[in-house]
Amino acid sequence: MNNIYSLFEKTKRENLRIAQKLSVAFYAPTKAQSQIALFIFGVALIAGGLSLEAMAQEVQSELVGTYNDERVAEAVNRMFGYIEGSFGALIMVAAGLGAIMSAAFGQYRAALGLLVVAVGSFILRSLVGTFFNTETIG
Predict the structure, then answer these.
(1) I want to staple 102 with a disulfide (CB 3.0 to 4.6 A). Which of 3, 111, 124, 127 is the partner?
(2) Domain limits, the chain
(3) Cα three-residue angle 134-136-138, rounded to 5 degrees
(4) Per-residue pLDDT reduced to its tens digit, 95-123
(5) What's the CA gap between 102 and 87, in Å, rounded?
(6) Is the pTM of the predicted complex or chain greater than 0.70?
């Protein structure tokens, strides 16, 4: 009987010690306890976010509509038409002349920037086609 009584007392003391530690950690946490709590919170946020992203294709919601990019594709086509047409030629010539003038005056950084603009206006459509989905454009 005495052995059972000591077991209950030991359990009671251990529960009290754990409750005291939790209470102190909650009301007056140390820096290490705060960092551990924030780390656990961050891991939980990342795990929750990754699991939602993994299930994004499975859940079909009525609130999410389909995206129609025809208007965006039309606007991009118009911009490409301007840049590949006479306006693009104007930009390329102006940037090329600006690069030559900047290099002549010793401003090589500005000349390099203008050279990038001139070449970029020339190869813009192929750059966009390389990095983005352009099936609806063109």
Answers:
(1) 111
(2) 2-54, 70-131
(3) 80
(4) 999 999 999 999 999 999 999 988 888 88
(5) 22
(6) no
